[in-house]
Amino acid sequence: MWPLILLLCPATLAAAEVQAHGLLFERWLCVTFFGGHQPGGYTQKWDIPAEANVAHGGIPVNPKAVKHGAPIGLGDALRQHDIAEPFLLIIGAWEQADAKTKRWVNARAARVEPAQWRALWGGVTRADLERLDAVVKDKALTLEEARARAQAMKTQPPFTTAVIQLNPKIDRSQRRLQCSLRFDDFFTHLAPGAPRGRLERPEIFGVPLPGSFASGARSFQK
Fold first, then answer.
1. What is the pTM of this model?
2. Is 128 within 8 Å of 158 (Cβ atoms)?
């Protein structure tokens, strides 16, 4: 099942090699629930737009595959802060079953209302994020200076009031301000009462996910 779904995905080969599990999860959702929607690209506002979501609320969908227990990467912080409409945040949590195989161990679709989303940002305003973003992207600062200043800002209010975590990405290839949500915080704030541990048959909207798929553990070269 998974190889067929991967063939349907229009993503680049490089992206497929690095994040095959995320692409597979998104394509499974699209084929199973959202009319075979074909993602338009990484710059679109929503991975699955509201018009593709006919059967589950008619609201946009943000699918995320994540290692069980790891933070859920949300993407660009400013773009995420700007969200002011209800949406579905659907997570698929995997674990490495062996050297060549991953398996799905949890899944949950949570409808997120604008007030819920705003509460996760605490007292952080867009202007606050713009100040931090400016430090991250300030080319007058060395990488080390930018990292130190961004980290110092993160440890002070209003950033310490937010549930959502800010993740400056500062290296020779990028200067971006991204954000994430802790795995447990997803369940605490957006899916209270839902089981967050490993499940025998995780499912979305009553449909079980395929059990496992070929995917080796990621390795990082120095």
1. 0.86
2. yes
Distance CA 128, CA 84 (A): 17
Torsion sign across C-alpha atoms 141, 143, 149, 154: positive
Position with higher pLDDT, 198 vs 11 = 198
pLDDT-based confidence at 160, cuts 50/70/90?
Answer: very high
Q: Which of 70, 71, 72 is nearest to 62 (CA)?
A: 72
The CA–CA distances, whole Å, from 125 to 72, 97, 140, 168 equal 21, 41, 25, 17
Pairwise CA distance, residues 136 & 175, whole Å: 6
Q: Can you give the pLDDT at residue 39?
A: 74
From residue 139, alpha-carbon distances to 63, 146, 147 in Å are 33, 9, 12
Q: Which residue's entry shows tokens 């305003």?
A: 125
CA distance 37 to 101: 27
What is the rounded CA–CA span in Å between residue 191 and residue 138? 38
Angle at 75 between CA 210 and CA 50, to 5 degrees: 65
